[in-house]
Specification:
The chain is built from 1 helix and 36 strands. By secondary structure, the protein is mainly beta. Helices cover about 10% and strands about 45% of the residues.
Length: about 425
């Protein structure tokens, strides 16, 4: 009788362990699947306007970081797990923050306020006050040379860390500024005139060029020649020759309000905007794929410390982080018009390195699985697994982690299967 009781107890324990293992596995899978962008606890419900990290652990956000009138900046030293409020030395809301190292940084905001710290934010001191201006961008190349721009037609420049400032007229109402070096800088204009200005002498003089866009709130350059500007209506402009020519690409009709753009190299870039939208490109801005932030809150700024680790901040105290570049690249809707048949197209370009696009047609709503196999038929990876409505779609495949050679990609739906060959050439 005792042995029977012991056997039953052991059976119950074993079953409990199995159940816990299954629950853990499901939970782990859920977290992995939905955790490409993970929300962090900012400790505030106020709007956050800007984020900057000096390394993968040490960073700052600015905006409204708490209930006190001077809670305008918060700092983390653990990658964003915890955020500590800092006294910003002003009660004016700050719109932009930047550091050149873990000690020295600046923040700028409404009513022309600029504050500076030289001890990591322990103390912030006002260094400029221009009541007629609202600053939207502060940028420093080193401890001495920096600029601010905003609603004023003036760009302010310093060569001694902010002790003294000189002004230059740009006549565009420029709101965002980006300098690739001490001489070459670009300025995007207000929400209505779609103007871009360029300086080749450190901001002393500005030359204007027009782009047919309603608003140009986002700018980033990787060097003095290669840069991107994003604006309404859902457009990205790319230059490879210092602004002499601009190539226009469409992001997606889903993104109606881009607010910030950042590139980690000449190919990989991110855009954030209204309703929690984040888009990623892996081919220099030609194609953009929607990433799932699991948010509906407006995002205002995005920053990456390297190719895979980044943060985005926005309204209601939102801070989200990714440590894998936003996860698997999603699918881009080319058209919601219903095709007449299933089609899997040849990837382009082919051969390729590092990125190629795969386009397919769905005449009906389908659960789509797109898999990659090597030349021997061995499974390599799942490129896409998603339920999609009828339409025309494209997704990308990245050759990172793949050796040169022949591969096969296969699409599987309830009603259609097809396979095509691709070549990775490194």
């Amino acid at each position: 009788m005792l042995s029977y009781f012991i056997i039953n107890v052991l059976s119950i324990i074993i079953n409990m362990k199995k159940t816990l293992f299954i629950l853990f596995t499901v939970s782990l899978f859920h977290n992995f699947a939905s955790g490409q962008w993970v929300q962090q606890n900012s400790g505030t419900t106020g709007d956050l306007n800007s984020v900057y990290f000096a390394d993968d652990l040490t960073g700052w956000v600015c905006g409204v970081t708490g209930s006190s009138s001077t809670d305008r900046i918060a700092k983390t030293t653990d990658g964003g797990i915890t955020w500590i409020k800092q006294n910003a030395g002003t009660y004016y809301v700050l719109n932009s923050i930047q550091f050149i190292n873990k000690q020295t940084g600046w923040a700028a905001g409404i009513h022309g306020i600029i504050v500076k710290t030289t001890n990591g934010g322990e103390n912030w001191l006002p260094i400029l006050f221009v009541p007629s201006a609202d600053w939207y961008t502060v940028q420093f190349l080193n401890e001495n040379t920096g600029w601010v721009s905003g609603t004023s037609d003036l760009v302010y420049r310093t060569t001694n860390g902010g002790t003294n400032w000189n002004t230059s007229q740009n006549n565009t109402g420029g709101i965002r500024i980006f300098f690739a070096d001490a001489n070459t800088g670009y300025l995007v204009a207000s929400a209505f005139n779609g103007k871009i200005s360029k300086s080749t002498n450190g901001g002393i003089n500005w030359m204007q060029s027009g782009i047919n866009s309603q608003a140009l709130p986002c700018i980033h350059f990787i060097n003095k020649d290669t840069g991107w500007i994003a604006g309404d209506p859902s457009l990205v402009y790319v230059t490879l020759n210092g602004g002499t020519n601009w190539i226009q690409y469409s992001i997606s009709s889903v993104l109606t309000g881009p607010r910030s753009i950042v590139f980690t190299n000449t190919l990989t870039g991110y855009i954030c905007g209204i309703a929690g939208i984040i888009f990623k490109t892996s081919n220099g801005g030609i194609n953009w794929n929607n990433q799932n932030s699991n948010l509906s809150t407006n995002l205002k700024d995005i920053f990456f410390i390297n190719n895979i680790t980044g943060w985005s901040v926005g309204e209601s105290g939102i801070i989200i982080k990714t440590t894998n570049g936003g996860g698997t690249v999603g699918v881009n809707t080319i058209s919601i018009e219903k095709p007449t048949e299933f089609v899997l197209f040849q990837n382009y370009p082919n051969p390729f390195n590092p990125v190629s696009m795969i386009t397919f047609h769905l005449p009906v709503s389908s659960e789509v699985v797109l898999k990659l196999f090597d030349m021997t038929g061995r499974y390599v990876q799942t490129i896409l697994k998603q339920a999609l409505a009828a339409g025309i779609y494209e997704t990308e495949i990245n050759s990172e982690g793949l050796s040169s050679g022949v591969y096969f990609y296969r699409i599987e739906t309830e009603r259609f299967t097809d396979t095509k060959k691709m070549i990775v050439l490194k």
